[in-house]
Each structure stands twice: as C-alpha cells, then as structure tokens.
Specification:
Two copies of one chain form a homodimer. The first copy, chain A, is of the alpha+beta class. The first copy, chain A, has five helices and six strands; from the N terminus they run H-H-E-H-H-E-E-E-E-E-H. Chain A has one domain: Arc Repressor Mutant, subunit A, CATH 1.10.10.10. In chain A, the strands form two sheets. A three-stranded antiparallel beta sheet of chain A has the order 1-3-2. Chain A has a three-stranded mixed beta sheet with strand order 5-4-6. The relative contact order of chain A is 0.14. At the A-B interface, strand 5 and strand 6 of A face strand 5 and strand 6 of B. The structure holds manganese (II) ion (2 copies) and zinc ion (2 copies). The site of one manganese (II) ion has 6 residues of chain B, from strand 4. Chain A binds a DNA duplex through helix 4.
DNA sequence: AATGTAAATGCAATAAAGTTGCGTTTGCGC
DNA sequence: GCGCAAACGCAACTTTATTGCATTTACATT
C-alpha cells in the first residue's frame, strides 16, 4: 500500500508535507528530532512540521520517544497502532556519539517486578552507548 | 554526617540555596522538576536554581532523569556517585495522575539482550502508570 | 577576628523549543 | 469543476534553559 493511502486511511489528507515526512521516517528504523526534519525540509514551515508530527502521533502512524538528552523524537510505527494508543513496547538505543536513536523493533521490553501499590501501564526501556559506526571510530 | 559537610566534601560551598535544595531532595525518594523547586523557594533566583542542580549533578550528589512528558527531574543519589559518572541504575516510576517520579532504589535495571554492534553504556528503565494514591482515587 | 579571593549569586539579555490565533490555500468528496 | 473542512504559513507568544557580568559571600589564611 502506498504512503498516500496509509495517510488517508487515518482520516488525514495526503499533503506534500506529510508525504515528505513519512517517507523519511519510513526509510530506516531511526527516530527523528524536529530540528533534524526541519533541516531536511527547509521550505516547510516549522509550525506545520510540529502539526504533522502531532497529527501522525495521534493517528497512530508514528510514536514519540524522548532521548537521553531530553530531545523529543518521532519514529514510524511498523505495526500500525490503533489511534493514540501505542502498543509499541520495543527497546530504543541512543548513541552518545552521533545521537542517533534506533528503534530495536525485535527487542521486546523486559518486564520488571515493582513494589506493590504501583499500577503499571507501560515500560520504556532506553539503552545508551555507542552504535556500530561510532564504536569503530 | 550533616548536609553542609556532604556538600563541602564535593568541593562546593555550603550556601543557603544549596542547603535548601538538598534538604528537600533528601526528604523522600522523589525526583523534582525545576518548576517544583522554584515554587518551593520563591526567593531564590531561577538561574541560581539551575546552577545548583547542575553543580550537584556534576558533583555526583544528584542524578538527572527525564520523565515521560520530557520534563527534567533531579533526585538525590543515595549511594554517592563518583563525580559526574552516575552508577545509578535503578528503575523509576512516573505517575500519570500526579506526575510524581519515584526512585525505586531497590529495583535494579533488568539487563537486555541487544543486537551485535551496539556498545552498551547503560540502561534507563522508566515505568509509567498510577501510584498508590492515584489508583485509589 | 579581620582579610583576600575564588566561588556563588542576582539580574538582564539571549536562545531554543513548543504553542496559539487567524487569514489564506488546498486536498478531495461530491 | 465546486464547495468546504482541513491544512498551511506567518506572526505573536510562552516555557524552558543558557550566558555574561557586576556584586556578594563562604571560607581558608593570617
Ligand atoms: Mn521506536
Ligand atoms: Mn532515581
Ligand atoms: Zn553513533
Ligand atoms: Zn500519583
């Protein structure tokens, strides 16, 4: 199924801005920061980019994660998530060299035993260190 | 050992601002946001508060964590960490009701098996859900 | 106890990140 | 093609964090 259809299926219009963004996000398993996408699409207004990302997240097309430096990042949901409820529980890896954020789709979040009284909704596992290219250098 | 001494042992001066902050952080196992502390010490300049927290973190007196909403929070290191290298690998719980962030000092971070090529420095495990008081209500 | 000095503070300015309002444009169902 | 809700662009504003600099203060030394 092509990108335009994927967007329309979520009740959103397939605009050029949206197509550009979703194409980049789909090109790998990385989570992108607003600033990075802004640099990539210099002709797109920054507010539009904020709105595209928010709309995508609410539609369940992308998920939001905050990296070790507190930077908000967005990555494509591989299995489409129903609405804003992201069943996305995989592990993320944040490189301290290049600052790339990798979605490790195949690594499930470990489940953790926590004290009584706490009601768990979900777990975020964020691993940091150095990616392959950065450990080589 | 008293708070002033603890601060001085890290090569910092035991000022009133610092004593106030460290006293609050030591009063429980919660991680505080800048805004919360600012409200608590209305007479302290906000820049001073930023600097107090940064200095404490670099000294290894507190550790920084980012909550599920991207808000930066600080909590006292129970076992003093050597310099800025925080050996602090416990799990944190973030309540979606009251937004409190609990340091679960006794819950060690699970270790996760990740793909080859990645060099792991550390793991951040952030659990979110509802705390005892918030699940009751 | 007084003094010297590096460290810490307060204030103003600046920067970065995100939000809101509103008039104009455009995707797309008809 | 037409109509209209949705999306966009631009300006203004807010929140969070950083930087520079003059003044004050903790504390080691006399
Ligand atoms: Mn992901
Ligand atoms: Mn903690
Ligand atoms: Zn890297
Ligand atoms: Zn709560």
């Amino acid at each position: 199924m092509d990108l335009s259809t994927q967007i329309r299926e979520k009740g959103l219009k397939a605009t050029p801005s949206r197509l550009n963004v979703i194409q980049v996000l789909g090109s790998n398993h990385l989570a992108y920061a607003h600033a990075e996408l802004e640099a990539l699409f210099s002709d797109m207004d920054r507010v539009t980019l904020y709105r595209v990302l928010n709309d995508f997240e609410e539609a369940g097309l992308v998920h939001k994660i905050i990296d070790v430096d507190g930077v908000t990042r967005f990555a494509l949901c591989k299995h489409s998530c129903p609405g804003a409820h992201h069943a996305d529980e995989h592990v993320h890896f944040n490189c301290r060299g290049c600052h790339k954020m990798f979605c490790l789709e195949n690594v499930p979040a470990p489940n953790v035993k926590i004290p009584l009284g706490f009601k768990v909704s979900g777990v975020q596992t964020l691993i940091y260190g150095y990616c392959k290219s950065c450990s080589a250098a």
